[in-house]
Design goal:
Structural class: mainly alpha
Helix content: over 70%
Mean pLDDT: 80
Strand content: under 5%
Order of helices and strands: HHHHHHHHHHHH
Number of domains: 2
Largest sheet: none
Radius of gyration: 21 Å
Shape: globular
Low-confidence stretches: 303-347, 349-356
Distance between the termini: 47 Å
Number of strands: 0
Number of helices: 12
Length: about 350
């Protein structure tokens, strides 16, 4: 089987696992909250096997996603992360009884359409024989300029903009983790290729280039996770998720185009189709998050009529997968509030009138 299609299978597997992990995690939190009489305190969820199943599924998804970058071009793998949102939305409607709605169904359909277009028109990956070849690509003037621009932009944002505007505009944090994330994806792909070549008998751990990419991956992911979590702390997930998905995907695709020159391997028809596919997926993700925000607003509009029932902006929410996007954030600290709302509105017949 061609490497491109192996990567496709791994990317879809990753999305299935990650989308399912959100549901398993929430089911585990629901069960732990119920056992704890809806008090929402402590770490009772750590004793719940369903919650651990969610964490294990998440780990499987991340490993599959890492492997997908090894076999397929980032231009195909990264946009397919939107499939995890679709899986999560569908499973939430089935197992958590969360309303998907017409707008949500339309968003799922649009995302699927965009994904199919990208799968059909994505170019094959560049044939790499040693990890030094990737370092050679990275040393090209165009990509060096990209790295330098990301470094200067990130340093300026962290030192000058974050202290004054970080809590006012979500794009401050999101722009940092998206641009840095694009470098991390390229480095992860390089390290993955090094592992694949090593397992096939061509040891790449004797090359200094492999360790350069390992260091870059570690630094970039720590920076990316830090500022993504800051964005989630300060702003509603219905705002952060679509903005992050679009900016992260766009930055990753730009980096991939510059590093591997993917468009050189595509004809004009495929190139135009790819761009259209990206735009369609962006639109689908926006519709999904708009549907979720609409459902949350309905719940929030009744808050003044309900006493002692906490609401949180994560009710019915999902996090878009991208590769390495902070999917474990708030599991320990804030999810209990949304789980209390899910249970109380579902189980108490006196509160049926507040259901969405």
């Amino acid at each position: 089987m061609e490497d491109k299609y192996i990567g496709l299978v791994l990317a879809i597997t990753s999305s299935l696992a990650i989308g399912s992990s959100f549901i398993l995690t929430k089911m585990g939190l629901n069960a732990a909250s119920e056992q704890n009489n809806f008090e929402g305190a402590g770490y009772e969820y750590l004793k719940n096997p369903i919650w651990w199943g969610g964490m294990a599924t998440m780990a499987i998804g991340e490993v599959a996603n890492f492997a997908a970058y090894t076999f397929a071009p980032a231009i195909m793998v990264t946009p397919l992360g939107a499939l995890s949102v679709i899986i999560g939305a569908i499973l939430a409607a089935v197992f958590l009884k969360e309303e998907l709605g017409t707008l949500g169904k339309l968003g799922c359909t649009v995302c699927l359409l965009g994904s199919v277009i990208i799968i059909l028109h994505a170019p094959s990956d560049t044939d790499i024989q040693t990890v030094d070849e990737i370092l050679g690509y990275a040393m090209q003037p165009a990509f060096l300029c990209y790295i330098l621009s990301v470094a200067v932009f990130t340093a300026f944002m962290i030192t000058k903009v974050v202290p004054t505007h970080g809590t006012k505009n979500p794009m401050v944090y999101i722009s940092i983790c998206s641009t840095v994330g694009s470098i991390s994806v390229m480095s992860i792909k390089a390290f993955g290729i090094a592992l694949k070549l090593t397992l096939s008998g061509n040891n790449q751990f004797t090359h200094f280039s492999t360790y350069i990419f390992i260091v870059v991956v570690a630094v970039c992911i720590m920076t990316q996770m830090n500022y993504f979590n800051k964005a989630l702390d300060q702003f509603d997930t219905s705002i952060v998720n679509p903005l992050y998905y679009v900016t992260f995907t766009t930055a990753t695709l730009v980096a991939s185009f510059i590093l591997f020159r993917n468009f050189d391997q595509s004809d004009q028809k495929d190139s135009v189709s790819l761009v259209c596919g990206f735009i369609i997926i962006f639109t689908g993700v926006y519709l999904l998050n708009l549907a979720r925000k609409k459902n949350h607003d309905k719940l929030f509009s009744h808050q003044s009529d309900v006493e002692n029932i906490p609401l949180d902006n994560n009710v019915g929410g999902f996090t878009v997968r991208k590769s390495f996007q902070g999917t474990h954030h708030r599991v320990a600290s804030q999810s209990y509030q949304s789980e209390e709302m899910v249970h109380l509105t579902r189980d108490d017949p006196d509160l049926d009138r507040f259901k969405v």
